[in-house]
């Protein structure tokens, strides 16, 4: 069977593609500069999360503090319209290394898309004790599973933790990446606006 006859699933990263980076928002509101680091800066996700958890513990930040930030976050300009456009054409799954507990207050703003992500371990005071990966390298595994189900897969991301997903998909696309990451992975087409992303998706999936 050719790819053109397969159903297409588009897998989107969440932060940086549809919404701003949550940790950067938390850094801004809490004025804790160390929380500005993201997967654009540290490729090793476990190293990054251990760094974040230490800072949250040191400053006694709780899930309530994080929700105060998330409730103020709005989707990137044009993201809701883009997501609606995409969902009328293809199956769409958001593959994210965020946490379900983080993003709960935000999902209604995107009309409750399907999100595969991780979870947090909390104590009775809602302080973050640990994080629980649904599966290591879960973005790549999800795309691989969809391919095994005979779907044509397209992946869109912006950071180092998206690279394995982009490589695994039939087609990978960068959306608003840094110059550093695009120079390291020049094989993926680069888009900077949602209209550019639409054009690239239409080119790929005919």
Structure in words:
By secondary structure, the chain is of the alpha/beta class. It has a single domain, classed as Rossmann fold, CATH 3.40.50.1000. 38% of the residues lie in helices and 19% in strands. It contains 9 helices and 7 strands. The protein has a 7-stranded mixed beta sheet, with helices on both faces.
SSE arrangement:
Blueprint: E1 8-12, H1 22-30, H2 45-58, H3 63-70, H4 79-87, E2 91-99, H5 100-103, E3 115-122, E4 128-132, H6 138-148, E5 152-157, H7 163-168, E6 171-175, H8 179-184, E7 190-191, H9 194-204
Parallel strand pairs: 1-2, 1-5, 2-3, 5-6, 6-7
Antiparallel strand pairs: 3-4
Helix pairs in contact: 1-3
Brief write-up:
The chain is α/β, with parallel strands linked by helices. The protein contains 9 helices and 7 strands, in the order βααααβαββαβαβαβα.
Task: Please describe the structure with a list of short key phrases separated by commas or semicolons.
seven-stranded mixed sheet, Rossmann fold, 206 residues, alpha/beta
What is the number of strand segments? Answer: 7
Secondary structure class reads: alpha/beta
Query: What is the CATH H-level superfamily?
Result: HAD superfamily/HAD-like
**SSE order, one letter for each helix or strand:** EHHHHEHEEHEHEHEH
Output mean pLDDT: 91
User: What is the CATH architecture descriptor?
Assistant: 3-Layer(aba) Sandwich
The helix content is: 25-40%
Measured distance between first and last alpha carbons: 15 Å
| CATH level-3 fold name | Rossmann fold
- Percent of residues in beta strands: 15-25%
The major sheet is characterized as: 7 strands, mixed
* CATH class term: Alpha Beta
Q: What order do the strands of the largest sheet run in, or round the barrel if closed?
A: 4-3-2-1-5-6-7
The total domain count is 1
């Amino acid at each position: 069977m050719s790819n053109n006859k397969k159903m297409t699933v588009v897998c989107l990263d969440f932060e940086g593609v549809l919404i701003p980076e949550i940790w950067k928002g938390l850094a801004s509101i809490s004025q804790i500069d160390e929380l500005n680091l993201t997967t654009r800066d540290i490729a090793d996700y476990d190293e990054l999360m251990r760094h974040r958890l230490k800072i949250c513990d040191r400053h006694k930040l709780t899930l309530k503090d994080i929700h105060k930030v998330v409730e103020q976050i709005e989707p990137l300009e044009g993201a809701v319209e883009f997501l609606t456009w995409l969902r009328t054409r293809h199956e769409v799954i958001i593959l994210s290394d965020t946490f379900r507990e983080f993003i709960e207050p935000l999902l209604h703003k995107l009309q409750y898309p399907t999100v595969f992500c991780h979870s947090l371990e909390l104590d009775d005071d809602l302080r973050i004790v640990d994080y629980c990966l649904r599966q290591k390298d879960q973005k790549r595994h999800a795309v691989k599973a969809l391919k095994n189900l005979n779907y044509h897969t397209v992946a869109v991301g912006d950071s180092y933790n998206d690279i394995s997903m982009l490589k695994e998909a039939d087609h990978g696309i960068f959306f608003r990446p840094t110059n550093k990451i695009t120079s390291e992975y020049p094989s993926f087409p680069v888009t900077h606006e949602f209209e550019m992303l639409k054009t690239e998706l239409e080119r790929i999936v005919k």
